[in-house]
Specification:
Blueprint lengths: L3 E3 L6 E2 L5 E7 L5 E7 L8 E2 L3 E8 L1 E6 L2 E6 L2 E5 L5 E4 L6 E8 L10 E2 L14 E4 L6 E3 L2 E5 L6 H4 L1 E7 L14 E8 L1 E6 L2 E6 L2 E5 L5 E4 L6 E8 L15
Length: 250
């Protein structure tokens, strides 16, 4: 399988809303990953999802409606939108905006991707509030050549995913391969990351997504002298899916 998914406007198709194009980047069991290209003046209307959403601004800026509130968001920010919260975008910035939508868990076949709504007053708003965070400011942790900013607060918690912004300086040597019990999504936002998934090497440029299923041995590192930044999402698989696991030792 291809573990690296490039995000390219040449692969995008019209969404049905003026000025808004989309491309399906990945759809593992645990998440649906959609890239959005919102031109100046683009205005996707209010809608809801049955699942939680992480809205990642990659380039430009836009105004996003979150329930009854508006929030101007820009590149580097991550917006957590709980299931059932009406939201939509209005790009009046004068330039194109590019973002990533990570829906967790993934949208199941046969289920609606979204439900349009006329007003936030037409639905019961979720108890969990939206949350906007950024990979800037004081870091959460600094270890060697790696700096980390935890972007998920307690309201999102481990119920959906743990999302961290990471910056790695280099060059650095790769660590031994390891695997995780959850699926892992790595979104490169700056520079080029070197990766190896199931012994398959890859150079991963900015605005590409690495999809690493649970149990796959892998390692990622910065082989260059230029800093690389990426978002690291640990995504639990839905309970309905059973992961293959070795039998316990006798």
């Amino acid at each position: 399988m291809s573990y690296v998914r490039r995000i390219s406007a040449t692969d995008a198709v019209d969404s049905g809303y003026p000025g808004y194009q989309v491309v399906m980047a990945a759809s593992p069991e645990s998440a649906t990953v959609l890239a959005g290209f919102l031109g100046d003046g683009g205005h996707p209307p209010l809608h809801t999802h049955e699942v939680d959403l992480f809205f990642v601004v990659l380039e430009g800026s836009t105004t996003i409606r979150l329930g009854r509130d508006d929030r101007h968001v820009q590149a580097g920010e991550v917006i957590y939108i709980p299931a059932g919260l009406p939201h939509g975008s209005d790009n009046q910035s004068g330039a194109a905006e590019r973002h990533l939508e990570i829906l967790i868990p993934g949208v199941r076949p046969g289920r609606p991707f979204l439900t349009p709504v006329k007003s936030a007053d037409d639905v019961q708003l979720p108890v969990t509030p939206p949350h906007v965070s950024s990979g800037s400011g004081p870091p959460t942790e600094v270890t060697g050549q790696e700096t980390r900013w935890v972007l998920t607060d307690g309201s999102a918690g481990g119920r959906t995913a743990q999302v961290t912004a990471v910056e790695r300086t280099g060059p650095e040597d790769p660590a031994p391969p390891a695997s995780l019990p959850d699926d892992r999504l790595v979104v490169v936002t700056q520079g080029e990351l070197t990766a190896e998934m199931a012994t398959e090497p890859a150079a991963v440029p900015a605005q590409a997504v690495i999809v690493i299923p649970a149990g796959i041995e892998h390692r990622i590192w910065n082989a260059s002298s230029t800093p690389v930044r990426y978002l690291d999402a640990d995504v639990p698989a839905p309970a309905a899916y059973v992961k293959l696991a070795p039998a316990p030792a006798q």
